[in-house]
Amino acid sequence: MATDKGKKPKAGEKIEEGTEQIDVELVQSIEKLQEVQDELEKINEEASDKVLEVEQKYNEVRKPVYDKRSEIIKTIPDFWLTAFLSHPALSDLLNEEDQKIFKHLTSLEVEDMKDVKSGYSITFNFSPNPYFEDTKLTKTFTFLDEGSTKITATSIKWKEGMGLQNGVSHEKNGKKRPHEDDSSFFSWFSGTQRKDDTVMDETHDEVAELIREDLWVNPLSYFNNDADEEDFGDEDGEEDIGTDDSEEDEDDDQEN
Question: Locations of Acidic residues compositional bias (predicted)?
């Protein structure tokens, strides 16, 4: 008896129908998952808003305490210079000329805008000094809606014979100052002096974040030089090879 070959396409049709059913169920599952994810996103946004409200509230509570701290710091000679030089990352930004200028740094202030999401400013206050006319240098970071950051800074008014213009060292008393703009901490301010007053520079942002999130939070730990330097170690997690070799040599000597 011959086999009815006409039934095979029907079997294939059933398989296709089953596949389509699976595809429909998959799409429905993904749509439901997206709905749940959207719900979570909404909750997260509400949580972020609440966190910002709390942060803004405690910024007001912290302000008088920061002011009190600042007044005490003013009585300690070279406090901010010492704190900067003891910081594993920020210390590399100060050349010899910068260190002389930092001896006139009386206070440092980091202030969030009233709406924390809008940005913050970093202000350096100086006593009268032979380097520039300004007693206050401020750099402001404004977070824009499109996700970029507008950065503005005080244009430093260097006194005659001081500072740099176009990367060329000035001369004082007939001698050229060994002071390169790119190696100076104060190029952090001049780097924003553009027509649109904006600059997107990861290095500049990194410096600001180090000051805002680390140094400003507890400058005393750096003044006392007791900060944990492991936080600023090699990003690749490399160990101190010299120390390990020494330990291995000691073990070999003991075995011999």
Answer: 226-256
